[in-house]
Write the structure tokens for this entry.
Amino acid sequence: MKVCQKIQSGRLKPSLKTHRDHVQHVNAIVEQKQQVKENVCQKCGKPMILRTVRSGSNQGNEFWGCSGYASCRSIRPIA
Ligand SMILES: [Zn+2]
């Protein structure tokens, strides 16, 4: 009987941890989706994606650029 209980409690702990990790993972995805939803291009409605300045005096700076770049060159500075 004691052995049986030990096995059960040993099983419960990892599944609880896994569940918590899963919830955190889902929350992270939900947050990402909300962030994307708020960052839509005001010109074409496509999601804005985080880009980095590749050259020039602002090299290394990050900004929001339209994911439809090339056909749409809308950008937004990070607030
Ligand atoms: Zn756009």
About this structure: Residues 41, 43-44, 46, 66, 68, 72, 74 surround zinc ion (CB under 6 Å). The helical segments are 2-38. The first helix runs from residue 2 to 38.
